[in-house]
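This protein record is not my work; I was only asked to verify it. Take the sequence as given and treat only the tokens as open to question. I have pasted the whole thing underneath without changing anything:
***
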Amino acid sequence: MTTARLPLFPLNAVLFPGLVLPLNVFEERYRAMMRELLTIDDSEPRRFAVVAIRDGREVAPTAPGMPDQTALPEKGPAAGFGSDPIQAFHRVGCIADAASIRERADGSFEVMATGTTRVRLLSVDASGPFLVAETEEIPEEQGEEAGTLSEGVLRAFRSYQKRLAGARERSLTASDLPDDPSVVSYLVAAAAVLDTPSKQRLLQAPDTATRLREELTLLRAETAVLRHLPSLPVVDLTQGPTYPN
């Protein structure tokens, strides 16, 4: 297994390989991370690991809060994540490659990154200005019948997307969608409107076929629900919202 020591960026969301991740970076711990990444030469990837938060806050409290109005806000790289931060995170995340990092006049950063490879957290170091994780890459295995399952998921996803978008919205055609089963599995996982635990289960599926089987079940269930609901606006299939940090 390939291991790497990478800056760690926890989010209240799941990043999948191939998904575009825009970030609005304003907390000092993450500003420090971006300044460090900018020291890497443009010819090299500026990589960091993204994990979904299991228990904690994406943005650390900056003022006293309930129930103790006199309590001082937490500071430091692990603020909001407890004394053993790795326990606050899901153990499977995704490497993000920062294509652009732009510093604003106020010292905050506008970042555009893309998910690349799944990783498993082995340990988390909170001794520096930002969290750093020892990570292990997780290879993507196809599993049995991935190709056949992919075709079924694409059919189910088209039906789901039409219900989600409404009859007046444009739906995806066959030419819009990939052929590779693993790419299909990540695209559908990212695009489907699911809660974080459901998306996390899809990210950490042991192989592509297992992920596709679960997606087929989820899509059929969600499509059945949508038949009885008013039309909703279509989601962007390649890019999520900008996450404040």
Summary: The chain has five helices and seven strands. The radius of gyration is 19 Å. The longest strand covers residues 109-125.
